[in-house]
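wait is this the right file?? whatever heres the structure
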């Protein structure tokens, strides 16, 4: 394993602190390294592998599509993409969708819709977007520009102009940033990289009301918290609101790189032919993955399953927090949980790895739990036992 790691460190651009584990295969909710060491996975590749690993129906759908047709371009139609669009729009309460290759690319498209919406309305380029402090929306220049963390943005300045930041879950702070040029407000329904902070009901409903009153587009980034992780297909469905634009990725493809920009109402009428595009988005293989994901969610009744296991996980974590003084707070929604510690998290994450459990950090002192959505109570017990030992 060390030899592979040495080669990797020589060959890759060094933008990651990787854990010293070379993974080889997965089965169910378990991953195996190249020596066959088994890990219970509570990270799902940062919220991607919602179906776990080697789900037969999902895998066979991909294999069948590979044998039929891999790529067409968007100059032609293909059936998997049409099916995926219909399923996505239904699940998200959207009218029109644009498929992308990643989360950050979907955010770029959402920013473009907001800017063009303003341009069409006022014939100027001064449309302002309000984003949230502590947010994360991706690494490309537009997404970075609305990411509320200075350390990510500053080395790449100047980022996009006309971006303002407000405090998450503080409606007054958002109101203070609104001007006649505000064209969009963008937030994660549950902040992921920022430390697992769910939106409050008052805040998200307040944002919806503000946007309706002032003709502002409401953009929700559900790249990490969407696709069933919250116990609803999209996390905003827990709060009785629907955004004008929803951005999805990660578990939408369960391992095949995809993203989506869902739009409704005025937001779905902004882009005209030539305004946007992609070579690979809506590719038949990527689309077949999306179709297989929606089918698997139905087959496994994923939403009910998530709700049941999440209640169990909540109880176990609350009990743990009562016993372990190092735990500062437990936060989250559904199967997206943060264990905030009074201490740096990485040491504990490495200890868990030694015990055969994968969890991931969020910021410096939060252990982030993003398990495959198919985990069972027995797997929660395994995690809690290990946490009891190492905390
Ligand atoms: C909330 C959120 N938005 C955007 C992104 C960027 O997605 P991607 O890494 O697919 O570009 C991420 C990735 O972690 C995310 O969690």
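ok assuming it is, sequence goes like this
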């Amino acid at each position: 394993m060390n030899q592979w790691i040495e080669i990797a460190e020589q060959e890759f651009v060094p933008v990651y602190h990787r854990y010293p584990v070379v993974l080889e295969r997965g089965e169910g909710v378990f991953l195996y390294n190249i020596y066959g060491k088994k890990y219970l996975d509570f990270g799902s590749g940062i919220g991607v592998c919602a179906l776990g690993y080697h789900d037969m129906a999902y895998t066979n759908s991909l294999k069948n599509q590979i044998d039929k047709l891999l790529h067409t371009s968007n100059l032609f139609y293909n059936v998997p993409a049409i099916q995926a669009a219909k399923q996505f729009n239904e699940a998200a309460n959207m009218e029109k969708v644009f498929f992308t290759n990643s989360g950050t690319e979907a955010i770029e498209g959402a920013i473009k819709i907001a800017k063009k919406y303003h341009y069409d309305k006022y014939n100027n380029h001064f449309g302002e977007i309000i984003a949230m402090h502590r947010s994360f929306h991706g690494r490309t220049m537009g997404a970075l520009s609305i990411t509320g963390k200075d350390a990510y943005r500053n080395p790449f300045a100047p980022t996009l102009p006309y971006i303002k930041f407000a405090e998450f879950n503080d409606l007054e702070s958002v109101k203070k940033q609104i001007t006649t040029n505000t064209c969009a407000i963008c937030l994660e329904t549950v902040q992921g990289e920022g430390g697992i902070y769910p939106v409050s009901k008052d805040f998200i409903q307040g944002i919806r009301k503000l946007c309706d009153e002032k003709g502002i587009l409401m953009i929700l980034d559900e790249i990490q918290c969407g696709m069933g992780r919250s116990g609803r297909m999209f996390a905003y469905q827990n709060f009785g609101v629907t955004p004008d634009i929803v951005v999805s990725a990660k578990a939408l493809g369960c391992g095949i790189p995809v993203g989506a920009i869902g739009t409704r109402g005025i937001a779905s009428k902004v882009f005209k032919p030539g305004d946007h595009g992609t070579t690979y988005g809506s590719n038949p293989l990527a689309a077949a993955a999306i179709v297989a994901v929606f089918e698997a969610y139905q087959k496994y009744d994923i939403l009910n399953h998530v709700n049941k296991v999440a209640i169990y996980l909540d109880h176990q974590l609350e009990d743990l927090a009562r016993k372990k003084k190092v735990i500062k707070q437990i936060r989250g929604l559904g199967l997206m949980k943060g264990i905030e510690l009074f201490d740096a998290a990485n040491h504990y994450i490495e200890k868990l790895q030694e015990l055969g459990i994968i969890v991931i950090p969020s910021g410096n002192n939060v252990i982030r739990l993003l398990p495959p959505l198919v985990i069972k109570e027995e797997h929660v017990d395994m995690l809690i036992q290990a946490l009891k030992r190492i905390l």
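The chain has two domains: 2-55+303-390, 58-299. so i think its the right one actually
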